Amino acid sequence: MSLATSKARSARRTSLSVREADGCHREVILGDRFAWSFRLHYHAGDEIVHLLAGRALLRVGQICRTIEAGETVIVPAGAVHRFEPLDAEGWGFTSQFVMPGVAQRSAASAAVDDSGLMTRIKALLAQRHSLRTDIAQIADACTMSKGYLSRRFRREAGTSLHDFHVLIAVQQAKGALKQGLSIVEAALDTGFYDQAHLTREFVRTYGFTPGAFRTAWLTAPPLDQVARH
To answer: Mind listing the domains of the chain with CATH numbers?
Structure first.
């Protein structure tokens, strides 16, 4: 792959808008057909994904499922997952995010491991003020050895404890950006080294920058204004 091609691929971005639906704001992500391959991640709300073109492989824990153009799948809130391309042409999609439980679950919903370990670890990591993941401390709190905890967590979540810690910090940064904090303030408040660090992790996770996220929310029409029109 040439340097120019590599730069073009790395610069490709999804687009985000914040719309009104049923009296609430709703995030909508659009990705034109491309070989999108997002990192393992999770969302605070249910994700409703509709494939517009191509095919993608959905991974949730140890479960894999092929999704084809025209299909819609619901990924429940908190489910660590990723979509990967199955063809060189890639896949196109739209994703909408709703409050947990709002989307009607069906056979098209992704399966979620409900062992409770993820919830426990998420709570422990969310309390940390930096991205230094103290695995020994977490293992003690879970009454497990470091090795066993690391292996079990990767088996259930498909990612490492540190990468999951980064995902929690990205979620916290999203909350700060929605409240109007600057990107650098959101980055430092949630444990990232600087604005560039947060931006890299944001793009790896969602395909758009924290600046695009902040702008979409700050320019969303007030719900009372939407209701009057």
So the answer is: 3-112 (2.60.120.10), 117-216 (1.10.10.60)
State the distance between the two ends of the chain, measured CA to CA, in whole angstroms: 50
Report the candidate in 159, 14, 210, 39 with the shortest Cα–Cα distance to residue 95: 14
Chain centre distance of CA 229: 32
Dist. CA 182–CA 211, nearest whole Å: 9
Would you state the structure tokens that stand for residue 144, as one six-digit string? Answer: 């497990």
Q: Which residue has the tokens 């249910």?
A: 46
* pLDDT tens, residue by residue, 46-61: 999 999 999 999 999 7
Q: Which of 88-97, 154-163, 205-214 has the lowest mean pLDDT?
A: 154-163
pTM of the model: 0.83
pLDDT bucket at 102, cuts 50 / 70 / 90:
low
CB burial readout 102-139, b (16+ within 10 A) else e = ebeeeeebbebbeeebbeebbebbeebeebebebeebb
Confirm if 49 and 42 have CB atoms less than 8 A apart.
Answer: no
- Largest Cα separation within the chain, whole Å, is 58
- The model's pLDDT over 67-91, given as tens digits with 9 standing for 90+, comes to 999 999 999 998 999 999 999 999 9
Give the C-alpha distances (Å, rounded to integers) separating 181 from 77, 94, 169, 178.
Answer: 25, 27, 15, 7
For residue 97, pLDDT over 90 is answered with yes
- DSSP-derived letter for residue 102 is T
153: left (phi over 0), alpha (psi -120 to 50) or beta: alpha
